[in-house]
From TrEMBL:
It comes from the Bacteria. This is HTH-type transcriptional regulator TtuA. One of its GO terms (molecular function) is transcription cis-regulatory region binding. InterPro entries: LysR_HTH_N, LysR_subst-bd, WH-like_DNA-bd_sf, WH_DNA-bd_sf. Belongs to the LysR transcriptional regulatory family. Pfam families: HTH_1 (PF00126), LysR_substrate (PF03466). Transcriptional regulator of the ttuABCDE tartrate utilization operon. Residues 1-58 form the HTH lysR-type domain. SUPFAM superfamilies: Periplasmic binding protein-like II, Winged helix' DNA-binding domain.
Amino acid sequence: MNTRFLETFLWAARLSSFSAAAERLHTTQASVSNRIAALERELGVTLFTRDVRCVNLTQAGRLALQHAEKIVNLTGEFRQMVSSREALRGTVRIGAADTIVYAWLPLLIRRMNEHYPGVSLDLTIDTSLKISQRIQNGEVDLGFIMGPVMAPGIYSAALCTFESCWVGATDLPLPESGLTIEDIAHFPLLTFSTGSQPHQALRSMLDAHGLSDSRIYNSNSLSIMTRLVAAGVGVGALPRVLVEDIIRAGEARILDISPAVPSLTFHSVYQDRGDNAVARAIADMATEIVAESVNEWMVGAA
């Protein structure tokens, strides 16, 4: 029996709401509904009566609640015991998108070294799409990527949201403010790799303004994108954290362009199994770091 399903059942029962339980667990209402339905199928009973505004426990649900609380409490104690710095050993395979590297990943790794000296790190930096696939294939234990990842057996929780911006070289011949996307359509537009969420959002924005013929330059190396921006190759549609260095160096500036570039939300993603205590512990550590490190380029914890 999946203990995460039991935890979901507990929160739904306590809050009398699937949507409130989803908010508390940092997931979607559909995910909560699916977990409860799976638990009901496994137990062969109906746990809740459902209406538009709330959910209520059935007689079987009230009986199950007593036992579920005991199981979840014991599971929590067990996780705490095996997740101590003395107990965690081995290698954790972490995959992260470039944006996380520029933000708080070094702080996470430094804290890992302090708290889990018995854990070695195998780090992969790649696109969110590729890391998502590697997590599902069992090749990566924990990912910090643009999500969510909606796949069977995968836990995906919103972690942080980064402000994005239009950015161009300081000497790019554009006014300081009052620009529209039509004003920059003749420049190459620099963004994430083809097929990524930011690329798709930019393409949709251009299509909506009748600018389907505009050039988009893509790369899975965002450090290359920032250098191309600084060199005046085109206008970037990038997370602000990626371009802070070239802005401080006077090589680039934020451009006031309408519409704005959408913010990007990143998730902690791992296989929802009972034998991945290291991934769970480090995901929890990342959540703590995000709460501590919100600043001018991060919209906030998601």
